[in-house]
Amino acid sequence: MARQAIEKQTNFGMSVEIEPMEAKSAEALPAGTGWQYEPKWDGFRCIAFKNGGNVELRAKSGKPLGRYFPELIAFLVGLAVDRFVIDGEIVVEIDGMLAFDALQARLHPAESRIRKLSGDTPARFVAFDMLMDKDGGLLLDQQLVNRRARLEEFARIVSADPRQFVVSPFTRNREEAAVWLSGSGSDTDGVVCKRLDEPYRPGERAMVKVKRMRTADCVVGGFRYGRDSHLVGSLLLGLYNDNGKLDHVGFTSAISDAEKPDLTKRLEALRGQPGFTGKAPGGRSRWSTERSSDWQPLKPELVVEVRFDQVTGHRFRHGTRFLRWRPDKSPSQCDIRQIGQ
């Protein structure tokens, strides 16, 4: 299906059917020979199509992204190459650091707002795979090592401004990749591992991703009951901001069924104000696990250590993993600087 989709694109115009190759999660970098390691970029996964004067940017979901990034469309249209399909990532940098919240701000319904942002915080396309070359040749069945060589050749030909287009760096040295994963000298959020001898497998989890994980000690400022349950479903996490107010920063729902009865009793005994004194939990949001807007405020006495990956706007972007209770830690020590971006 994906091969047919690209062939349709090359002959008749843009296609919405192609799916990017994806990655499965792992706790550690794979060992052995034959691996290529690349930074895991904190942006929007995107496949860029060009056919003559037509350019499309397609998200992993297949939805078009072009209207949100007019500066990238204009740049790709202007390249002195008439045809290609490139897999990559759209990122935005502010003061030399990746800024996912600035990237999200682009998904705005007002064209005037998008135009302003495209000038204030222009996006960049980070290329990491080539699916069709400048001559219209399909590369899906070729090994990664060959596709990478074609991508680097393409980059040399177009000589693009690195503020608009770059080829993602890579290493084939596991020790160097481990340094990337540790966060030393990098603001990306992990490492993607690819087999050098593998073809491109659209829609398959044929790569490996290892995220950079961090920990934080958080105040439990509230909790939610599970759906249709009288037992706890998730803990609501807080950190004190620079004004001394407790802001809601995310949740953890990794609570075993065996723990829930006793934990529910413990939490219910602590119900009471103030709960969150700064930013409070809302109703339906991508940070909550329950559909209900109801949450129970707690006296700020419990501290928990959680593991997290990404932070956007001083909040955990995803759910966190419960690690342990911290009775030795004072709630007042749990401040927002732990998750400084």
Protein described:
It contains seven helices and 18 strands. The protein is of the alpha+beta class and 341 residues long. The strands form four sheets. Strands 3, 4, 5, 6, 7 and 8 form a six-stranded mixed sheet that branches. Strands 11, 12, 13, 14, 15 and 18 form a six-stranded antiparallel sheet that branches. It has a four-stranded mixed sheet with strand order 1-10-9-2, with helices on one face. It is elongated. The protein starts with a helix and ends in a 16-residue tail after the last strand. 35% of the residues are buried. Residues 283-292 have low confidence and may be disordered.
Features:
single chain; about 350 residues; alpha+beta; D-amino Acid Aminotransferase, Chain A, domain 1; OB fold (Dihydrolipoamide Acetyltransferase, E2P); 2 domains; six-stranded mixed sheet; six-stranded antiparallel sheet; 7 helices; elongated
CATH architecture of the largest domain: 2-Layer Sandwich
Our measurement of the CA-to-CA distance between the termini, rounded to an integer number of angstroms, reads 41 Å
Oligomer: single chain
As residue ranges, the low-confidence spans are: 283-292
Morphology: elongated
The CATH homologous superfamily of the largest domain is named: DNA ligase/mRNA capping enzyme
User: What profile does the largest beta sheet have?
Assistant: 6 strands, mixed
Q: Let me know the number of strands.
A: 18
How much helicity do the residues have? 10-25%
Tally of helical segments: 7
CATH topology of the largest domain: D-amino Acid Aminotransferase, Chain A, domain 1
Which range does the strand content fall in?
25-35%
